[in-house]
Design brief:
globular; 2 helices; Thrombin, subunit H; alpha+beta; 6-stranded antiparallel beta barrel
């Protein structure tokens, strides 16, 4: 579902519904990937991970991707990928 925030994103998001692993310095958990783009993802999880925390999201389709938590609330995390894939995609969009 699109809203005004989606319009400001650097990459279009695709709705998903698959499980993933989530690792950070204090633990490991599972999460459901609600939507994903080349530059980030929205995850449903019961874990409370602080904004600014570095995490690694692992899925069967894309493997492990490092990210940082940029949003937390209502049982969801917003993460921004910090790998070369995300950086390259963002750089192409600025040209």
């Amino acid at each position: 579902m699109a809203d005004t925030l989606d319009n400001a994103r650097s990459a279009p998001r695709a709705a998903t519904n698959h499980l993933a692993g989530l690792e950070w310095r204090r633990g490991v958990a599972s999460a459901r990937v609600v939507d994903m783009s080349m530059t980030g993802a929205r995850l449903a999880t019961h874990e409370q991970i602080a904004i600014g925390e570095n995490v690694v999201l692992t899925t069967v389709r894309m493997g492990a991707r490092p990210a940082v938590v940029v949003r937390f609330g209502d049982g969801e995390l917003g993460i921004k990928f910090t790998d070369d894939i995300a950086r390259d995609f963002e750089a192409r969009g600025r040209r």
